[in-house]
Design a protein that fits this description.
Layout (H helix, E strand, L loop, with lengths): L1 H17 L8 E2 L14 E2 L46 H13 L23 E5 L2 E6 L3 E4 L5 E5 L4 E3 L12 E3 L4 E4 L13 E3 L4 E5 L17 E2 L2 E2 L12 E3 L19 H5 L8
Parallel strand pairs: 1-2, 4-8, 7-9, 8-10, 9-11, 11-14
Antiparallel strand pairs: 3-4, 5-6, 12-13
Length: 281
């Protein structure tokens, strides 16, 4: 009898140890792709947390880095070797515009900042016309024009100063250059005479000084005096070359002598030595 009781107790003990126990309700995240997946949960409670795109649950990047070192980014190096740059533009021309910004642009101009990043980028500087990837026309004029009744006709904003960057001569296809009414000083860079495609050079109303070499006659510049108003509107784009109202010193190359306009020659050595020369009036 005692023996049977012991066997019975052993059987009951084994049954209790290996028999499933009914589980109560366990709330939690039941999605095994979530960072806080709970394997014991049997009721979903909308508490799942997921890793940020391109990262694991520990914040480690699991996607390729782009050229900006951004995890999973899509920035690529352009044809100029610039990360997230602009394809389709001549690299040297873009470089010239950047030098103008770095060397000659004196202040931030909000009206130029098309993308609103609080800095002026090469394609935002002034007005530009491109053909075949090359800069054909560039205008950066600081000027406000009113009609005879005091009504605003048009305005341009550009704050260039200092000696014009020597890189300007690298614009191999440039035809029109408009930089009037700024604060450019010093002599024109010798490289400007490399602009073999240039036909319109508009540099009036600056503080450019020194003598102009005969090399300027090798350029195919079209000269004219003054500026144009058509139908009551400023026709600046139709202007011909004009370098008047500077401090450029005589004697002038014969090809431009008749187009120099007014010049402040008070500091010119030639005029100090030849005060009665009509060119020094």
């Amino acid at each position: 009898m005692i023996r049977r009781l012991i066997i019975l107790l052993l059987i009951v003990g084994c049954f209790d140890e290996y028999s499933p126990i009914e589980q109560g309700d366990v709330y939690g995240c039941t999605d095994d792709t979530a960072c806080n997946f709970n394997a014991n949960a049997n009721i979903f409670d909308n508490t799942c947390d997921y890793a940020e795109e391109n990262y694991d649950c520990d914040g480690n990047c699991i996607a390729p880095l782009d050229c900006n070192e951004e995890c999973g980014g899509d920035a690529v190096v352009d044809n100029c070797g610039v990360c997230d740059g602009l394809d389709g533009y001549n690299c040297e021309d873009l470089d010239v515009l950047q030098h103008l910004i770095d060397e000659n642009l004196t202040s931030y101009i909000a009206s130029m900042d098309d993308n609103g990043n609080n800095e002026i980028e090469p394609l935002e500087l002034g007005e530009q016309r491109w053909e075949g990837g090359y800069l054909i026309e560039f205008s950066c004029i600081d000027l406000v024009i009113y009609d005879s009744f005091g009504e605003l006709l048009t305005s341009f904003e550009c704050k260039l100063s200092g000696e014009l960057t020597e890189y300007i001569g690298n614009l191999s296809k440039l035809e029109h250059l408009y930089l009037s009414h700024n604060n450019l000083t010093g002599q024109l860079p010798p490289t400007i005479y490399n602009l073999s495609s240039l036909t319109k050079l508009y540099l009036s109303n600056n503080y450019l000084a020194g003598e102009i070499p005969n090399q300027i006659c090798d350029l195919n510049l079209i000269w004219d005096d003054g500026f144009a108003i058509e139908d009551g509107e400023y026709a600046g784009k139709d202007l011909h070359s004009d370098i008047s109202n500077n401090k450029l010193c005589p004697p002038y190359p014969t090809c431009i002598e008749d187009y120099m306009g007014e010049q402040d020659t008070s500091e010119c050595e030639y005029c100090i030595e030849n005060p009665t020369d009509p060119l020094c009036d």
